[in-house]
Amino acid sequence: MHHPSEKHERHKGRRYADRHPGHAGKGSGHFAAGFGGGGRGFRMGRKLGSGDLQLVILALLAEKPRHGYEIIKEFEERSNGFYGPSPGMVYPALTYLEEIGHATVETEGTKKLYRITEAGTAHLAANRGTVDAILEQLARIGGKMARVREAFAGDEASDEGRMTDELRAARRQLKAVLIDKLGAPPAEQTRIAQILQHAADTIRGK
Q1: Contact assessment for residue 123 and residue 103, using Cβ atoms and an 8 Å cutoff
Q2: 178-188 pLDDT, tens digit each
């Protein structure tokens, strides 16, 4: 995965934070959710708001100091590739957290290493319920997508022997579409997940 240089993104993030205090981290990434936590609630396809993105970043920094690209990678790993905020979301959020005293940054060559501060730790503790709900939902949605992939990576030869030609053809078409969509933007993957869930419920007779 290719990311812009941290120096460029940090400069861009500082300019964004200067113009939009309190809204750093807002971007085009989408997050599929349906939970409530800390007074917040999300619907399928809604964006992960700037405040929630900042909270999750603080939670990741509380685990250990991280570089910006490591934070992006951690989002992707925890959601099994389902959700990955862009550098244009993460670096402005990091800049804002530094400016309000919730994080510090130190230079390591051309890279920036971010750490949570005492003030950031206190803010995180006050909003722990929201953070845990977001992380749990990231893992749940990512798990569903992983199970979909696994379902189509099994022994097709033995399975297809028990299928009609019509069902076999439908399965192959669905598999081809899902493989084609694996690298789709989060919003599109959200739409696909909704369709698959509805189809599964219909097949079960719900």
Answers
A1: no
A2: 877 777 788 88
